[in-house]
Structures are given as C-alpha cells and as structure tokens.
Amino acid sequence: MATHKLLLLPGDGIGPEVMKEVEKLIGWFAKRGVGFETEKDLVGGAAYDAHKVAISEDAMKRAQAADAVLFGAVGGPKWDGVPYAARPEAGLLRLRKDLGLFANLRPAICYPALADSSTLKREVVEGLDILIVRELTGGVYFGEPKELVTLEDGSQRAVDTQLYTTGEIERIARVAFDLAKKRRNKVSSAEKSNVMKTGVLWRQVVSRVHKAEFADAQLEHVLADNAAMQLVKNPKQFDVLVTDNLFGDILSDIAAMLTGSLGMLPSAALGAEDAVTGKRKAMYEPVHGSAPDITGKGLANPLAMIGSFGMALRYSFGLTEEADLLEKAVTNVLASGTRTKDLAAAGTNAVSTTDMGDAIVKELNALS
Ligand code: IPM
Ligand code: MG
C-alpha cells in the first residue's frame, strides 16, 4: 500500500479547529485502505510562542520532505507586537517561497444549495465555477528592496518592490492555460498594464505563451480593477483568471464571497514538476485565515479546510475517486440543509464545526 506523507500545520486561531475535522477524514480514508503518514508541527504565532520564530528549521525540513503540507491559518492580535521578521504570516510566506510554490489555485464554486447565502443575487452566482490562478512566489510580496527607513528629517519612507521576470510569468501562464484545457478553455489575465511596467510585461508574456503553445484557448486581457468590478457584476463570464500575487490575493477574497462565505474557499499551492520524479511540492490551505473573533467557539466552517484536503487528494496523490467522493459528500450535506453559522440564514439553526465534520463523515459512510 502506498503511503502519502502529509505534514499538518494547524497554526493559529481557527486553524486547529478546522484541521481537527480533516484529521477525522484522514482517519476515515485510512480505514478504507488509503494510507497516510501524518506528522504535525507548529507555524505562525504558535511557533513564535514555542520557538520565537514563525516556523522552525525543523518544521521546514519536514515540509520539504512531505508529499503535501496541509496548512490551517496563521496570525491574530496576540502577536501584533512581535518583530516583523517573526510575525505569524512570515511562516506562511517562507513555506511558499522555500518550497517554490509559485502556482496558487483558488477555485470559487457556488454550490447550488448556497446560492442564497451569497450577498449577491442568486442569478448572479448560481452555478458559478471559476478558478483563480494566483502567482505566489513573486511580485510585491517578495521584491527587493522592501524596507521602512527613517530619513534625516525624522520622517520615514517605506518601499515595496513589484518585480516580475519573463520566466515567472511564463510558468504561471502555462499552469493557467493547462488547467483551462480541462474546463471551458478560457483564460482571463488581469494586470495593470496601464500603470505598471510589470503589467506591460505580464500582458506581453501571457500573449506570447498563448500564441506559441495554447492558441486554441480563448485569451482575454483585463485590467485588475476592472476584473474586480466584473467579478461582482457578472462573475460567470470568467473561467480561469490568472493574475499576480497581490491582485490574486485581493481578487480571490472577492471571489470567495460569491460562493456564500469566505469559509468555503479551499486552495492549492503547487511547485514545479520534479524532472526526475514528476512530483510537485504542494501545500493546501483554506483562504479564510485565522478568524480570531470566532476562535474557540465552535463557529468555524471547516469546509474550506476539508476542500483543501480534497484538493490534496486530487493534485498531490492522484486519488480522483476519493476526491470526487468527498466533494459529493460536501454537496449532499449542504443540500440537506446542514449549515455552519456563516452560511445559515437568519433565524435558522446552525451546526458547530465538529458537527459539520461529523456530518461529512456520516455522508461518506452513506455513499460508500
Ligand atoms: C492569503 C492571505 C495571505 C496572503 C496572508 C495571510 C499573508 O491573505 O493567503 O490570501 O496575503 O497571501
Ligand atoms: Mg488573502
């Protein structure tokens, strides 16, 4: 039996609560012969409390050795005062950078049962199925110089650098076009070529990759601000939306709300294919973040974390049947009216984080 090496990094806030529900699923699949070898470690504020760093060297080694990392969430007001280099988010950014996870897949799917949970009208979001492909290891997140300096007159100056190279844009464009092939074969590329040099290069390179390698796909260029507007106005016009690190961060939060709740959006961060083994480094995480305001109250929606585990089954382990089964279970549980608080209509009953996890397990039992 092949075993799959998983590193669990629950992190802070609601991270550990939602990860616990995924551990139930790992147990469920293990009983049915899908072997997982799991390890657990600290990241973010939890790592800072224990080791005074956002992620230890030991945890980084384990992440490098794992077939996939499942990541919960990091951050919270408790760590507002920690040194910038050790802030909880630094752990996440280091994982992305050191593992070379340049391609971030953020699917936004509106489950039929949730079309009324979105703040947008049902007809705008019903049947929505878009995929945001966010560049994850470049751009303004990592560009140098990145500094905050005090000037002679005592005032300060802060600099972040937006930087992209041809190679970085080519490889993310290829990921987007490749994924589009299995979908509606349409790619929308978002940048600010009207203001930014990186946007000009982005547009040129995406066009070139399209023409040379994916000419049968439909490509459209859209300015990132317009993309934000179009996502709210008519999101179903999109299929795959490829964009840089910062625009992808913002546009994916907008996309999340189309699905009914930020608690619904999973994501996968993938590295390049290894030339020898064909394997990709990978990390899977919910888009929602640590949500300190609801931590420890049993209110968190575990479906984004569960969906992220589903993406691991699909993209890291090739367990398509298992991933489909899990998706079916989620669809059915939602269709039955089971909702965590973020999704429940006013005046209706909501279930706890644990109850939602149990409902998925129960449905998996019923389906298999
Ligand atoms: C995300 C988050 C992160 C980001 C934060 C926590 C650093 O917002 O994954 O979207 O900005 O990338
Ligand atoms: Mg974000």
Descriptive report:
This protein has 368 residues and is an alpha/beta fold. It folds into 2 domains: 1-109 and 262-368, Isopropylmalate Dehydrogenase (3-Layer(aba) Sandwich); 129-258, 3-Layer(aba) Sandwich (Isopropylmalate Dehydrogenase), CATH 3.40.718.10. It has 12 helices and 12 strands. The chain has helices at residues 15-31, 45-51, 57-65, 88-98, 122-125, 166-181, 197-213, 224-233, 245-258, 303-315, 320-335, 353-367; strands at residues 3-11, 35-40, 68-73, 103-109, 129-135, 143-150, 156-161, 186-191, 218-223, 240-243, 268-273, 280-284. Strands 2-1-3-12-11-4-5-10-8-9 form a 10-stranded mixed β-sheet, with helices on both faces. The protein has a two-stranded antiparallel sheet with strand order 6-7. A hairpin with a 6-residue loop joins β11 (268-273) and β12. α1 packs across α10 (303-315), α10 packs antiparallel against α11 (320-335) and α11 crosses α12. The radius of gyration is 20 Å and the shape is globular. The model has no long low-confidence stretch (mean pLDDT 96). 3-isopropylmalic acid (IPM) binds at residues 89, 92, 249, 287, 289.
